[in-house]
Amino acid sequence: MQQGGVLEGIGEEILGNDPAQPLDILALEETTTNPITVVPIVSGLNSFYGVAGMYSNSTYQATQFGGSSNNGSGNGPNAMVYNAETLQLLASVPVDPPGGIGNLGSASGEYREVMRYEFAPAGVAPTATNEFYVYVSHYKASTGNGNENYRNGEAKIIRNDEATYLPANACVLYVGDYNVDNSGEPMYQTILSNTAPNGIHQGQGIDPLNPTNNPNINWSTTTTDTNILVLLTEYGDELEYRDDLQVMTTNVYSGAADGLALVPGTYHVFGNNGTTAYKGTVNSGSNPALNNRLVTNGPVFISAAQLYLDLTTASDHLPVVADYTIPITVPAPVLQSVTGMGGTVTFTWSAVVSAVYQLQYRTNLVQDNWSNWGSAITATNTVMSATDSIGPDPQRFYRLLVP
């Protein structure tokens, strides 16, 4: 098994009490096409983890200004990769300007087709409380009032779409390359407004790195908040700018019950903890951002030193990473088979990935209490097995439950 580079490293990072786990969602910008850019990422992840079909991608091919979905420069459409063992993709919806893709560009300010993806946990029925939405955007770049107006045009389209088509209490992530220079920009303020431009009061965004919405932060010049810088420029590996953001609706940020919730303390720029100077490089040889934060046991695990190097070559931006939780009602396990041999019995059942199961037994049906067989089992696949050595007991009765 070969190293999986930056995406492997993200899956092996431990954040406080939150365990390391493979990526669930990878939002992409500046792709060329799904076959050229996205499918190789999916194939690489499946190969690395050794599970066919573990990762998939949205088959919708987004477009951009001029109606093209194929931009050889790599400055093209938005896309989505997701872990099919933990999530089900319910919809991939293009969010186009009024009048359709013919108005992409200066007519609307939306130069690359914004995508809205709808997800629910895998293996369970989608409901209003377990569904969530991810908008993926790549706003117009460059400084000046004109470009700021273009960015604000795209932000207005996104907020109006959310307010028009999503439930009032929808859990929403607004992610992507914002190309934002300062927190006072109209685009940024539109996303964080408590009311959509069409007057509907819903969908307000919260920036976890600016939760009070300080409008006077300048991210385009030297800043003491170097831990938020994400851009390694195309002209080298200098750390500057804050281009990439994960903004979320207030219910996600606050962890409201029955929905997607940000795990506090997990929102960060991967590979940068603020110790690298402005216009410095994460591969300086003295960057401690990943020290003692990577899983170190197992068959193959990537080193911090390798990741610092990979971060300077995998992309011109550093990834913005966060962990989220979502409550699910796990259905009762369905037993697929029971086999016994040589004093052992093996149970195989259908499972929900990441759900916890407990096998219990008792030696007669008169007993009031069940005893746990071993520790609780966290499902890593949709089919799980457990084997018990019966030992001297003449008989055992078993049950499998979700604690």
Task: Characterise this structure.
The protein has 403 residues and is α+β, with helices and mostly antiparallel strands. The chain folds into 2 domains: 5-325, Deoxyribonuclease I, Chain A; 334-401, Immunoglobulin-like (Sandwich), CATH 2.60.40. The chain is 17% helix and 25% strand. The chain contains 6 helices and 22 strands. It has helices at residues 5-11, 34-49, 145-165, 186-192, 250-254, 304-314; strands at residues 25-28, 55-57, 79-83, 87-95, 114-121, 132-138, 172-177, 205-206, 231-232, 239-240, 244-249, 261-262, 268-269, 320-321, 324-325, 334-341, 344-350, 356-362, 371-372, 377-378, 383-389, 397-401. The chain has a 6-stranded mixed beta sheet with strand order 4-5-6-7-11-8. Strands 18, 19, 20 and 22 form a 4-stranded antiparallel beta sheet that branches. Helix 3 packs parallel to helix 4. The longest helix is centred in the middle third of the chain and has 21 residues, at 145-165. The model has no long low-confidence stretch (mean pLDDT 90).
